[in-house]
């Protein structure tokens, strides 16, 4: 995909509501996960036996309604440890150390996040649909100074099913008094944000976290950066 913004949807209807993902879309941790994982291995007294890429690849397999992020991570690390010929408890010890190092208040807004929200708030209802527990995600919103920017926040996996299930988007739209055909969801994840938007009949706006990724599923709109949404010419508006 090129760095230029483009649209793949013919829908030029006005949009009343904009839903946002949180992690990787509006905010990011000050310390990246790879750095924390290295610290966790050191704190647990373990030599590193997997990298952050494998953690990300396998973490989703351990998430389910009623399973906390910490529990899912511990189960993930235990499984990886067992696959490497280690006792599962060694993986759980690394997961405990990771959780101890992670500070959910140490987040910062991604470039353009605040400006985009301020611009859109003039003529759109705004909401957050985020996979994560309420206490953790609320801490991030407050630390980033974004808690007052939204009329609704849906904690998918807790208030409703986790994305990409359509339920959290449907809950958010109901809270906002909006309809799916006049809403878009902005996020960085193809598998949860774009797929979840499509499942709910909502327009998808994909802001990729890295370059060179072939989108699957194909989003309705793709932006080179979140800052583009602060422009008065929105991607879902016809020229």
TrEMBL record:
EC id: 3.1.3.-
InterPro entries in the cross-refs: HAD-like_hydrolase, HAD-like_sf, HAD-SF_hydro_IA, HAD_sf
GO BP, one annotated term: small molecule metabolic process
Cofactor(s) essential for the protein: Mg(2+)
Origin: domain of life: Archaea
Region (Disordered): 208-239
Pfam families, per the entry: Hydrolase
Protein family membership: Belongs to the HAD-like hydrolase superfamily.
Protein name: HAD family hydrolase
Provenance organism: Halorussus caseinilyticus
């Amino acid at each position: 995909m090129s760095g230029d913004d483009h649209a793949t949807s013919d829908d030029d209807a006005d949009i009343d509501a904009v839903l946002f993902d949180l992690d990787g879309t509006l905010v990011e941790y000050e310390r990246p996960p790879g750095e924390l994982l290295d610290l966790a291995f050191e704190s647990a007294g373990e030599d590193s036996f997997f990298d952050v890429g494998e953690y990300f690849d396998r973490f989703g397999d351990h998430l389910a309604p009623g399973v906390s992020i910490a529990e899912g991570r511990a189960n993930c690390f235990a499984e990886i440890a067992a696959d490497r010929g280690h006792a599962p408890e060694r993986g759980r010890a690394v997961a405990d150390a990771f959780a101890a190092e992670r500070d959910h208040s140490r987040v910062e807004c991604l470039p353009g996040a605040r400006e985009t929200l301020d611009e859109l708030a003039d003529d759109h209802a705004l909401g957050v649909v985020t996979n994560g527990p309420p206490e953790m995600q609320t801490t991030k919103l407050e630390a980033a100074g974004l808690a007052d920017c939204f009329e609704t926040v849906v904690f998918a996996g807790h208030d409703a099913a986790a994305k990409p299930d359509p339920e959290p988007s449907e809950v958010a739209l109901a809270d906002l008094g909006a309809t799916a055909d006049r809403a878009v969801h902005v996020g960085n994840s193809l598998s949860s944000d774009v797929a979840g938007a499509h499942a709910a009949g909502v327009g998808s706006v994909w802001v990729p976290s890295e370059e060179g990724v072939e989108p699957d599923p194909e989003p309705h709109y793709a932006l080179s950066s979140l800052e583009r949404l602060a422009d008065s010419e929105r991607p879902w508006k016809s020229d």
